[in-house]
Specification:
six-stranded parallel beta sheet; 2 helices; single chain; five-stranded parallel beta sheet
């Protein structure tokens, strides 16, 4: 009898814990208009970070979360402040390269949001989600998919004249620059951030 009561108490505690968690999440969703945004921001996200890579115009691959990505990236939120003067700078990913030798898959960047500041004196190839997307094989059947991404942040290059150190160019809300003969699809992604 003691064993049965003990098992019942464990199940009861587990059920109570699950119900409490669900009620808490329900209340939080009422406070947050977007439950997915809440999960990304507070459970899976990176918040209040600052990256200072300024002062070096030859610096490559600066990102709010990832400098260089060679595989799939899924569900990242950041409100980072990224200060850099180099190439291939992104709010989430600085540089993304497709590297599937079998060409059997698609490199997917999915469900990412940038809500911070990407700034520099001489930004080149800068984007709210990805600064530069390219490939390593040189084949047309390389496939890159950017989907369900949102930029609400600011991308700001202080030098806007092409003749001034070849900068202030290739800036985009989602993707700053795409290079090479490969298939690139951007789906269900929105930029409502500021490009300056």
């Amino acid at each position: 009898l003691f064993i049965l009561i003990n098992k019942f108490n464990r199940k009861y505690l587990l059920i109570t814990s699950i119900i409490t968690t669900l009620i808490t999440l329900y209340i939080l969703t009422k406070l947050q208009s977007n439950f997915i945004s809440f999960i990304i921001r507070f459970i899976l996200g990176i918040t209040n970070s600052f990256i200072d890579a300024s002062g070096n115009q030859d610096l490559r691959f600066a990102g709010g979360v990832i400098g260089a990505a060679f595989g799939n990236v899924d569900t990242i939120y950041t409100d980072a402040i990224v200060k850099t003067d180099g190439f291939d700078c992104g709010g989430v990913i600085g540089f993304s390269e497709y590297r599937d030798a079998s060409f059997a898959s698609v490199q997917t960047i999915n469900n990412c949001q940038f809500d911070g500041l990407l700034t520099g004196e001489t930004l080149r190839r800068a984007g709210g989600i990805i600064g530069n997307a390219t490939y390593s094989s040189g084949r047309l059947d390389c496939r890159v998919l950017i989907k369900n991404c949102l930029n609400t942040g600011t991308i700001q290059s202080k030098v806007k004249n092409y003749d001034q150190i070849n900068s202030g160019m290739y800036i985009g809300g989602i993707l700053g620059f795409a290079w090479g003969a490969f298939t690139l699809n951007i789906e269900d992604s929105i930029n409502i951030g500021t490009l300056d």
